[in-house]
Amino acid sequence: MTGFSEFGDYDALGLGALVHKGEVSPTELLEEAIGRLNAVDPKLNAVPIRHDDFARQQIEAGLPKGPFCGVPFLLKDQTLLAGTQTSFGSRAYKGFVPDHSSTFVERCLNAGFTMFGKTATPEYSLDYTTEPVAYGPTCNPWNLGHSAGGSSGGAAAVVAARVLPLAHATDGGGSIRIPAACCGVFGLKPTRARTPQGPDRLEGWGSMSCAHALSLSVRDSAALLDVTQGPELGSPYGLPPPERPYLDEVGRDPGRLRIAFVDRHLDGSAIDEEIATATRTTASLLERLGHFVEEKAPPRLSADRSDVSRAIVYPEIAASLKRRSAELGRPLNTDDFETGTLAEMEIGNGMTALEYIAATQAMRQIGRDLALFFVDFDVLLTPTLCLPPLRLGQLEMKGRDLDAYYRIAGRYAPWTGMFNMSGQPSMSVPLAWSKDGLPLGMLFSGRFGDEATLFRLAAQLEQARPWRRKRPPVAAG
Questions:
Q1: Alpha-carbon span 297 to 275, nearest angstrom
Q2: What's its job (predicted)?
Q3: Could you tell me if residue 474 is inside a domain?
């Protein structure tokens, strides 16, 4: 079976348009994507679960005529697609095959995607790197000795390596934006409740978690949000619908935005000098594009972001593992879950409802702190990461010393999680590379509900400083 050798010249919308015009078939696109994955994944270890025949059966059964009709797609290994394995990056879910799909996946199926596998994630998506015991580490295509980020590290690696132009991802504390920065691709975290979380769990991590994607082009990200956004039955939150399709925002004049920028750590300390310089260079670019730019940090948050996050996440992990223990009919042990995950479970089991409520109230106050800052600014620019992509093994949660892990994580990625707490949209844009050839992402965050401004700005930056022409050493095609 032959593929479509020009596959890499198109983004996902472009591939879908070719299918609609009859210039290429879904089968040709799928076989090309499978061939590309086969060529690079032995080096990357980014897609541990394959179901190529499921995608072939989709094509045989007939695909919906959505904007992504016939476009190959990979889901993150924490998302349900009926009849296919999902492991959540854990040995405890070996052989787990759900009988239904998540709402987000149903919307992607209706858009016409063909789904041929699951991308790697750390166990339960808990890590800022993708190095699970269940499948081993995912490597960064820019340098195989470095992390692809986490928790959507597998998705970022395959998009960067040109296996696909677009792949599913999720973000509960930076899990879209951190791997986007590590791998030199575009990653937007939508506003809280913009995309569905059900039907089994209608919110994740106290509303901090959301689903979207990693992509090469801004317009693919916008178009995917168009087909997946909106409430589902039972949604605990509601958002006003966008003024117009997000795809229509791409290329629309953003106007003269008021942009604050910070080239330091959240605590005010200095960061890696190359990243600080890249942040200042980006601020200068924004000025040249006509925006008002001011060096201005948000006010000190009313609570410690890391403490609040853990007080919400640990009980959620404990509840999830309790359910899995009941399903297995036995206690859990280190043959099921990693030591760090079990340590988080133990802490979560010891926490009280009062502590959880206090944490959620503190999280809402953090949201208010940031909302007040965005009264005067449209966008905040910060580095996505305060260190270049770490080497494999530098940051992984396999031991019981969680404090040591979070000390490193806190220096590495202090900015992303605060916007999960506030619920604001936030995106990592690949605008710089280190002298060693590693990507350095820039983080842009906007007002609650205002993805439109971010898409307009991202498209302007994509035009001013194109990143798609940059290819990593490990790339297909």
A1: 17
A2: Hydrolyzes indole-3-acetamide (IAM) into indole-3-acetic acid (IAA).
A3: no
C-alpha of 472 from chain center = 19
Assign 383 to helix, strand or coil.
strand
Does 355 fall in a domain? yes
Per the residue annotation, which of 87, 101, 175, 426 is the catalytic one?
A: 175
Helix, strand, coil percentages for the chain (3-state, nearest 5): 40, 15, 45
379-383 vs 292-295, strand pairing mode = unpaired
Contacts of 338 (CB under 8 A, 6+ apart): 90, 123, 132, 133, 397, 398
Q: Which domain holds residue 125?
A: 7-464
Residue 426 has pLDDT above 60, yes or no: yes
**Per-residue exposure over 147-170, b if at least 16 CB sit within 10 Å of its own CB, e if not:** bbbbbbbbbbbbbbbbbbbbbbbb
Q: Is the overall model pTM greater than 0.85, yes or no?
A: yes
Query: Does the pLDDT at position 2 exceed 70?
Result: no
Instruction: Name residue 41's amino acid.
Output: D
Give yes or no for residue 1 having a pLDDT over 60. no
Strand pairing category for 258-261 and 292-295: parallel
pLDDT tens track for 152-197 = 999 999 999 999 999 999 999 999 999 999 999 999 999 999 999 9
For position 401, what pLDDT does the model report?
A: 83
**395-421 per-position pLDDT tens digit:** 977 777 888 899 999 999 999 999 999
Number of compact structural domains in the chain: 1
Residues in the chain, overall count:
477
At 41, give phi and psi (nearest 5°). -65, -25
The widest CA-to-CA distance across the chain, in whole angstroms, is: 62
- Judge whether 25 counts as a catalytic residue: no
**d(Cα 157, Cα 109) in Å, to the nearest integer?**
23
**Percent over 70 (pLDDT), the chain:** 100
Check 101, 102, 151, 207 and give the catalytic one: 151
Q: Which amino acid is at 311?
A: A
Q: Judging by DSSP bridges, how do beta strands 139-140 and 166-171 pair with one another?
A: unpaired
Please identify which of the residues 76, 87, 90, 189 carries the catalytic annotation: 76
Which ranges of 138-217 does DSSP label H, i.e. alpha helix?
Answer: 153-160, 177-183
Average pLDDT on 347-371 reads 97
Q: Is residue 411 part of a domain?
A: yes
Q: Identify the CATH number of the domain in which residue 141 sits.
A: 3.90.1300.10
Is residue 94 annotated as a catalytic residue, yes or no?
no
pLDDT at 291 over 50: yes
Is 151 part of the annotated catalytic residue set?
yes
> Tokens 């506030």 sit at which residue?
422
